[in-house]
Structure formats: structure tokens, C-alpha cells
Write a structure and sequence with these properties.
Layout lengths: L11 H31 L14 H36 L4 H16 L2 H11 L5 H26 L3 H9 L4 H31 L11 H11 L8 H37 L5
């Protein structure tokens, strides 16, 4: 029996227990999967007739319109949240204590506020006739607060000597931020920014609650209003709408990786090579 500096190697009885627990876990998971499959199959959710509604042009157009509305809400929320995040981050990094306090209060409040409640409250209070702007405003406030913390932490992660050297040359605070700190911080905080944009894209599905006609709402209309001889096509709708969301998130992640790799190559070309 071997030993490790991190833990004691299990003996024969412990290994037997682990195997028994593993077998029980596999059987339990298999049982749950079978129960789910049997429940759905008893409602004819896997029959070929459930896919018939997707042959109609109106259903296909409804999915396309939902996708376009999702991208519209995401584009607006992404742009506004980045602008708001930059402004709040500038406030958090200000030399003036009142400005820092106000920016910190705004960031902490909107980060703590549940996004669904905020979107619903905005819709009921200010945007009763425009669910798009209720969704965009809620996404902007929440994700802008998160982006502000990402930007602030990225700027603070730049070595202190960079800013001190710039101040020693007589540069002002705005010049130091725009010319020295932010350009260096962008490469390190870009993955986190793109990751939060992926969250923003997925959160557009919350527009379903306020009847905004995004992709999830379109899927709900299809699933609940296009009856087939075997019932309503809930599972086929999930199998169509789900991969679309996954595909959009994967494309956004791929774009982030491409931008990051491009920035890394540019930084390497600018770095002088020692003789």
C-alpha cells in the first residue's frame, strides 16, 4: 500500500466502499434518466410528429425574429454596459472621496439587486409599453456594475511602477490612465469582459418574463400554440432553441479568444528582442 504526503492511501475496505458508492451513484443517475425519458415518452415527446410544426414558414420566421430580437437586446445592453462600466470604474478610481463613495454605492447596489426583479420592476414602473428598453436597462445596470469591477481590478493589477514613472514625467491623472494604465490592463481583463458579455447574452432570455419577443419567448409560443396529433412539442422546441443559445455563446467566446490572441501577437511584435 503506497502513501502520499497529501493524504493516506485508501486500504482494501475503503476501496470497496468507494466502488460500492460509485455503483450506487451510477444506478441512481441511470434511474433518474430513465424516469425522465419514460415520463416524456409517455407524452409522445419523442415522436416524429412533434417536429412537424418546424416545417411551416411561419414557425421558422418566428424563430428568426426571436433570434434577431435577442441579438438586438444583447447589442444594446453590451454597448451600454461597457460605457457605464467604464464610467463607474473611473469613479471608483477617482482621487476624490465623494466620487469614489457614490460610484461604489451604485456598483454595490446594482450588483446585489436580483436581475429578474430589476427587469420586472423597470417594466412595471417605467417601460410598460416598451419591454425591450426595460430589458436593456436592467441588463445595462447590472452588467455595467460588474464590468466596472472588472475594469477597476484590471487597472489596479498593472504594476504600480508604471503609474509612478508616468507621474514622475509630469503626466496628469487622465493621461496616465488613458495612455499608460488602461492599454496595459486591457489585455489582462479582456477575457473577463468577454465572459461577462456571454452572461449578458444568456440573460436576454429573462425578457421572456416581460413578454419581450426574444428567442425564449418565441420558443414558448411555438411550444404552447402549435399542437400536433401527439400534443405540444416542448422537447423539440428545447432541442432547437437550446443549441442556438449555445452556438451564440460559443461564437462570442471564440471571438474573445481571437481578440486575445491578436493582442498577444501585437504585444510580442512591439517587444524589443535583446541581442
Amino acid at each position: 500500500m503506497s502513501s502520499s504526503v497529501l493524504y493516506d492511501a485508501p486500504g482494501p475496505r475503503a476501496k470497496a466502499r468507494y466502488r460500492a458508492f460509485g455503483v450506487l451513484a451510477v444506478l441512481g443517475i441511470a434511474g433518474l434518466l430513465w424516469y425522465a425519458y419514460d415520463s416524456l415518452a409517455s407524452r409522445n415527446q419523442f415522436s416524429a410528429a412533434m417536429w412537424d410544426p418546424f416545417q411551416y414558414t411561419a414557425v421558422q420566421q418566428l424563430i428568426v425574429n426571436g433570434l434577431l430580437d435577442t441579438l438586438k437586446a444583447f447589442g444594446l445592453a453590451a454597448a451600454f454596459s461597457l460605457v457605464l462600466g467604464a464610467l463607474l470604474a473611473a469613479g471608483r478610481l477617482s482621487d476624490h472621496r465623494p466620487v469614489r463613495a457614490v460610484a461604489a454605492a451604485i456598483v454595490q447596489f446594482f450588483r446585489a439587486m436580483p436581475l429578474l426583479i430589476m427587469i420586472f420592476a423597470l417594466y412595471q414602473s417605467f417601460f410598460t409599453t416598451s419591454p425591450l428598453w426595460a430589458l436593456v436597462t436592467g441588463l445595462t445596470l447590472y452588467n455595467g456594475a460588474v464590468q466596472a469591477e472588472i475594469i477597476r481590478s484590471g487597472v489596479n493589477a498593472v504594476p504600480r511602477g508604471q503609474g509612478e514613472a508616468a507621474y514622475a514625467l509630469g503626466m496628469r491623472k487622465s493621461q496616465v490612465m488613458t495612455a499608460i494604465l488602461v492599454p496595459q490592463a486591457v489585455r489582462s481583463m479582456l477575457p473577463a469582459i468577454i465572459g461577462q458579455l456571454v452572461v449578458t447574452l444568456k440573460d436576454t432570455s429573462l425578457g421572456f418574463v416581460i413578454t419581450y419577443t426574444e428567442l425564449l419567448y418565441a420558443g414558448k409560443l411555438i411550444a404552447s400554440n402549435t399542437a400536433t396529433p401527439d400534443g405540444y412539442p416542448y422537447i423539440p422546441v428545447v432541442l432547437v432553441i437550446g443549441p442556438i443559445y449555445i452556438g451564440m455563446c460559443l461564437l462570442l467566446t471564440a471571438l474573445a479568444k481571437w481578440i486575445e490572441a491578436r493582442g498577444r501577437r501585437g504585444a510580442n511584435r512591439r517587444t524589443p528582442v535583446a541581442a
